[in-house]
Amino acid sequence: MPRRKQITVVGSGGRVPPQVSEIAERVGELVVERGAVLICGGKGGMMEAACRGAKRKGGLTIGILPNGIEEANPYVDIAIVTEMGDARNIINVKSADAVIAVHGEAGTMSEIALALKAGKKVVAIKTSGGISAKLASQVIGDKQILSAASADEAVDLALRK
Asked: Which pTM was predicted?
């Protein structure tokens, strides 16, 4: 059996607007429906919403946590405790076949930069706002951040060869 694709979803860990939560949940659902595993930072906000969507469809969720296991949102199946703080972002992106950014701030920007540097495909959902809206379609060096208008388009782009 071939290895399942691993999609890392990055974005805001704090409170997010309801429309961002809906986008993240839909991303989680679609990742699972397309046969992939969802990886994220494992905490709250957008990460919790993505995991909730994935679990709704019976999928597997992996949370790469910055500190202790108590940080894991209730929808994380496999909690990987790093005790590395933000340095754990490199594990999030290096473990991915592709990265999808939903909303986000400075931490998300660092994950996008690390993913580009690692040669990973990065898709930013422009309509989710935050850093994703600012970086969608941007070219950094010789690498382009793909822009998606919806969760469906983002997952399609992430899983496209």
From this structure: 0.97
